[in-house]
Design a protein that fits this description.
about 30% strand; 5-stranded mixed β-barrel; 7 strands; OB fold (Dihydrolipoamide Acetyltransferase, E2P); 2 domains; alpha+beta
Length: about 150
């Protein structure tokens, strides 16, 4: 044997078994971690929703069709119509800042009491379709501010 070559002892069968089990365990742990990351990503993506004003919704056009959205605005008072079936309602929501732009919405369910308060901001969650109708899944009504700043008297 020359000095350049060194002796490497043969691997014993027990050592091969331990290395094989350790490799399988690492592969299984890697697959498990990847599966958890994938499931977390899918759950987060399904639960997330864009939060837009009525004006922003109208400006975005086709890019928001059939996506989970939240839209905020104020009820157009004369637009509220309840169908004869009892729970299906149609209404329009106006932009809270300027009130110029509107979106038509439909909701099947009970409407909160503060929905009709002209000072309440309404947040609709649902999907916006290509026919211009917002299919509302839930309604959140923000309470109007009860307190207003006093004007400074000089």
């Amino acid at each position: 044997m020359s000095q350049a070559q060194s002796y490497v002892p043969p691997v014993q069968p027990e050592e091969r078994s331990v290395l094989a089990h350790r490799g399988k365990l690492l592969v299984a742990a890697g697959v498990f971690v990847l599966a958890l990351v994938y499931l977390a990503f899918i759950a987060f993506q399904g639960a997330s929703a864009f939060y837009l004003t009525v004006g922003e919704l109208n400006d975005r056009g086709e890019s928001v069709y059939d996506r989970n959205l939240r839209v905020s605005g104020k009820l157009v008072q004369s637009s509220f119509v309840r169908d004869d079936s009892g729970t299906l309602v149609h209404f329009s929501l106006a932009d809270a800042e300027d009130g110029g732009q509107t979106v038509d919405a439909v909701y099947d369910g009970l409407v909160p009491d503060l929905f009709f308060n002209e000072h309440s901001e309404i947040v609709l969650e649902g999907t916006y379709s290509s026919d211009g109708m917002f299919d509302t899944q839930s309604i959140l009504v923000k309470c109007p501010s009860k307190y207003q700043a006093l004007e400074a008297s000089n």
